[in-house]
Design a protein that fits this description.
Elements lengths: L2 H25 L6 H4 L1 H6 L18 H8 L2 H8 L1 H33 L29 H34 L10 E5 L9 H12 L4 E8 L3 H17 L14 E3 L6 E3 L6 H4 L3 H4 L3 H4 L5 E9 L2 H9 L10 E4 L8 H4 L6 H18 L1 H10 L2 H7 L4 H4 L3 H9 L1 H10 L2 H11 L5 H32 L10 H8 L4 H21 L1 H13 L14 H19 L5 H22 L12 H25 L3 H24 L2 H4 L3 H14 L2 H7 L27 H20 L6 E2 L3
Antiparallel strand pairs: 1-5, 1-6, 2-5, 2-7, 3-4
Helix pairs in contact: 1-19, 1-24, 4-27, 5-6, 6-7, 6-26, 6-27, 7-28, 7-29, 15-21, 16-20, 16-22, 20-24, 21-22, 22-26, 23-28, 24-26, 24-27, 26-27, 26-28, 28-29
């Protein structure tokens, strides 16, 4: 690829970024879009944003950037949770390490590449990108020791920064454990694989088992019922009928009129309802009175239950130990937070989970293999000169005007790849759901890993393999020489990676800031369908798509830093822009419904270590190709040092992310007992995990008869009955909740 083609792609993406950022700074000030761009703040700080749109609503501004940078880490932690802080620290780490890499490589290594051979150079726009890679350095060059030294500096500083960030997130995780609001999940254990017998129910079996083997810490339990689409419909119908029975003494005001809506598309009008005469409605009330027996829909018990313990330490011990000699029965895990429970998967039989995991693994592999064809085609577009040698009929394309060829080779491939990649996240989320996770956060983390593996394989390795196939057709001829083959082809693939950063990085950040789908949905709902604003729906941050994307760019930065440093300035712009955009989105747009406590950081750490080791292996192959035994020899200890550093982090810090320290839990239990809060916490556990919450009920408000004093007593009695019923429901405990004998 020529520099001119790269500049064409950069110009298009810079123009799109400036356009989207300007539109965003204007659209965010419009009152009609407040729920698109301030969804989280409207839901949590409703009264503070009512007067935020008064002046300069149609003038682009940069005030939102200053506001996003003004927030401290403590404010981000309080507003968006520890996962948002971990994501933010990943961007900070990337900015720091790639700022150093850009300083060393652009000013230290790039001139060595450009003047690596004694050739006559053209003007910069007409130069090929390979001139700026290590491929332009002669064999046995005396300057290769500079590459080895820079590789040592980048790897050493990356390990130091990574350890500091790992330790910082671990400290915040312990503080997250000691937060002011008690977490019911710390007192609760999810039990699956409960053996069923005909003699007793699951509820009795759970009570007998934990009373016998955990008598000192067992409190009570709650059975989980099978849930599905049909079950939810039946439960909703049951609750609606119960509500209707409480309001048999109400009538409809005959003076009210039907509401008329006019369609924005065709102009036709429709009535929302038609009123019937009161004398026709009143006699029909007796038909609504149904027997309680007809409303009793028996929920089928499943082999799962939430078991509550008196202390956090008791729940931790019960979740870690093996309950019986059969590992598939009485399986215990710490329960997720109440808002994080994925009820649709909890009732799944535990014995079939391993089959689901194998099936989803095979499905993910097949999907990754099916993606080879479009990726190979896309890579071919960026190397039309190579395809021309194999496919002579492409001569007509290369004879097109110069600017059209630049557009095809410089911009079109990454755009097509980005369109294909939009299908990856929903499919991987579907696979993760089929695995049977018990929480929303676990499902999202599983999808995050799948998307990450997919991107690394298809965007990095498949592009490298396809580039090698197009040039040499011998990538798999000698598997032992794979590092050497990677060293040969990665510098040549730097052009595609740079355009990918421009399209999937810069442009995607601008579209994320614009919230195009949210804008379109808000416009159709408000102005076409004339529906009220949905105040309840606020999206959560898509960690399963954004974390893999940032980590992929980090992989590209590490592998190309020494070999093709021209990519580093573009990456730095992406990380700086992403730091501002993502902070703005986390603080204003997305709502945190559940938090994993920083469990995304181990994924980030492992990916960075993989990127460093892969970079060192590729550089080892490059030094071998350039016949530099000194540089190659010094690279081997660097690989060993990086692996030893990773093992130290796994031993020192990783256990803090897999379980909670018993010391901290015991101290918290003693503090709660001394302060008298433990009894209040135990009382709150009764309503913490509600599989069929009352919030799903159909709320039927009392309807008074206007101008009729005869039914006044009936209205008052109906209201009191309604309040009494609500109070009884609120204070009641599920009949399947058993308390252990004291």
């Amino acid at each position: 690829m020529k520099i001119s083609a790269l500049l064409t792609s950069a110009g298009i993406n810079i123009g799109l970024c400036v356009l989207f950022l300007s539109l965003y700074s204007v659209l965010r000030k419009q009152p009609a879009n407040v729920r698109v761009y301030f969804g989280r703040r409207i839901s949590e700080e409703h009264s503070r944003l009512r007067e935020a749109f008064i002046l300069e609503r149609f003038v682009p501004s940069t005030g939102w950037i200053v506001k996003a940078l003004r927030y401290t880490e403590e404010e981000v932690l309080a507003a968006a949770g520890l996962d948002a802080v971990a994501f933010n620290r990943m961007l900070v780490f990337s900015i720091r390490i790639f700022s150093l890499a850009a300083l060393l490589c652009v000013f230290g290594i790039l001139p060595l590449h450009y003047y690596g051979q004694n050739i006559q150079h053209l003007r910069i726009p007409y130069e090929d990108l390979d001139i700026f890679t290590i491929g332009n350095v002669e064999k046995r060059s005396r300057w290769l020791w500079v590459h080895c030294l820079v590789l040592y500096i980048i790897s050493g500083v990356a390990c130091i920064l990574l350890y500091l960030e790992f330790r910082h997130i671990a400290r915040l995780r312990l503080l997250h454990l000691k937060r002011a609001t008690p977490n019911p999940g710390q007192f609760t254990v999810l039990v699956r694989g409960i053996p069923k017998t005909k003699k007793e129910s699951c509820s009795s079996a759970v009570d007998d088992f934990f009373t016998k083997y955990h008598a000192s810490s067992y409190l009570f339990h709650q059975i989980v019922y099978k849930t599905g689409k049909v079950q939810k419909i039946m439960t909703g119908a049951k609750k609606a009928c119960r509500k209707l029975k409480n309001f048999t003494d109400t009538t409809v005001d005959q003076s009210c009129k039907a509401i008329t809506y006019r369609c924005c598309l065709c102009g036709a009008s429709s009535n929302s309802f038609q009123l019937l005469p009161t004398d026709e409605v009143v006699p029909s009330r007796g038909k609504v009175d149904l027997d309680d027996s007809s409303l009793n829909i028996d929920n089928e018990e499943c082999a799962a239950a939430f078991v509550f313990f008196k202390t956090r330490y008791g729940a931790l011990v019960a979740s870690d130990v093996l309950q019986t000699s059969n590992p598939t029965k009485w399986v215990t895990d710490l329960a997720p937070e109440p808002n994080d429970v994925y009820w649709s998967n909890i009732w799944l039989p535990y014995k079939q989970l391993w089959i689901r995991r194998i099936a989803t693994l095979l499905g993910s592999i097949v999907f990754m293999l099916l993606f080879l064809a479009p990726v190979t085609f896309i890579n071919g577009l960026s190397q039309l000169d190579q395809l021309q040698k194999r496919l002579p009929f492409l001569n007509g394309i290369l004879k097109q005007p110069h600017h059209l060829v630049q557009l095809i080779t410089g911009y079109l491939p990454s755009v097509i790849l980005q369109i294909f990649l939009y299908t990856v996240a929903p499919i991987m989320m579907l696979f993760s759901t089929l695995e049977g996770p018990i929480s929303h956060s676990e499902r999202k983390r599983s999808a995050c890993c799948k998307v990450l593996y997919f991107l690394i394989w298809n965007v990095f390795f498949v592009n490298v393999v396809s580039g090698t196939v197009l040039k040499q057709l011998d990538f798999f001829s000698s598997p032992k020489d794979i590092p050497v083959q990677l060293a040969k082809v990665i510098p040549g693939q730097a052009s595609f990676f740079i355009t990918y950063v421009l399209t999937s990085g810069w442009a995607s950040l601008s579209s994320e800031l614009m919230q195009l789908f949210g804008l379109i949905y808000n416009f159709i709902r408000k102005y076409v369908l004339r529906m009220k604003e949905d105040t309840e729906f606020v999206p959560s941050f898509p960690y399963h798509t954004e974390v893999p994307k940032v980590l992929l760019f980090g992989l590209l930065g590490f592998t190309c830093s020494v070999l093709a440093p021209l990519i580093l300035p573009f990456l730095l712009v992406y990380f700086f822009l992403g730091y501002v955009v993502y902070r703005n989105q986390l603080l204003n747009v997305y709502r945190t419904r559940y938090d994993t406590g920083g469990l995304y950081w181990p994924i980030i750490h492992n990916t960075v270590i993989f990127s460093l080791v892969l970079t060192q292996i590729i550089c080892l192959g490059v030094f071998g190709l350039k016949v530099s035994p000194v540089a190659a020899g010094f690279t081997i200890p660097l690989i060993i040092f990086t692996l030893l550093f990773n093992q130290y982090c796994r031993t020192r810090l990783l256990p803090l992310f897999s379980t909670f320290p018993a010391q901290n839990l015991i101290d918290m239990d003693r503090e709660d007992e001394l302060s008298g809060r433990m009894e209040h916490i135990h009382h709150g556990l009764h309503t913490a995990y509600c599989q069929f919450p009352e919030s799903e009920d159909i709320q039927l408000e009392e309807i008074r008869t206007v101008g009729n004093d005869e039914d006044g007593g009936g209205c008052s009695s109906g209201g009191s009955n309604g309040k009494g019923t609500a109070a009884a429901q609120k204070g009641s405990v599920s009949p399947d909740t058993q308390r252990a004998p004291r």
